[in-house]
Amino acid sequence: MGIGARLKQARSSKGYTQNSLADAIGVSRGVITNIEHEKAEPQMLVIRGICYELGINSSWLLQGEGPMESEKDAERSAHLLAEIYHLSTLLSKEEQDYVLDMIKTFQKHKESLRNNSDIPKETEPQ
Fold it and tell me: Are 16 and 57 part of one and the same domain?
């Protein structure tokens, strides 16, 4: 897997479109498209911006080495999941199911908003 496929994987997994990532780091959508299609060698400034915004490891993005998430984000995720688990043990089975349904509903709503953006799907692959 090359840098283009890794960027697309990271961008998609973090819920970014090409436009939203480009806007977040201050470049044109074409820059992101060219990196994903491996038509241009990205500048280190752009790589740093992408890694910072997506919370990913630059070694993973550039060479495919190490974990995708930066250590800071992986640690944060571990703490968050531990806290969620701890709090869920204080709930009844029915309350746990209700919270899970709320999370799933939130995720569907988020996906719906992303799918209803002004960017046609065929223009920007997810």
Answer: yes
Domain assignment of residue 31, given as a range: 3-63
Sole residue written with tokens 């692959």: 125
Q: Is residue 100 part of a domain?
A: yes
By CB atoms closer than 10 A (0-12, 13-18, 19+), residue 79 is exposed
What is the pTM for the complete model shown?
A: 0.60
Across the strands, what pairs with 56? Answer: 69
Residue 70 DSSP code = -
Name 79's Cβ contacts closer than 8 Å, sequence gap at least 6.
none
Residue 118 backbone dihedrals phi, psi, to 5 degrees: -80, 5
In a domain, 103, yes or no: yes
> Mean pLDDT in each 10-residue stretch from start to end of the chain (126 residues)?
95 93 94 96 93 92 90 75 88 94 89 64 42
- The first and second tokens of residue 64, run together, are 């495919």
Indicate if 48 and 21 belong to the same structural domain: yes
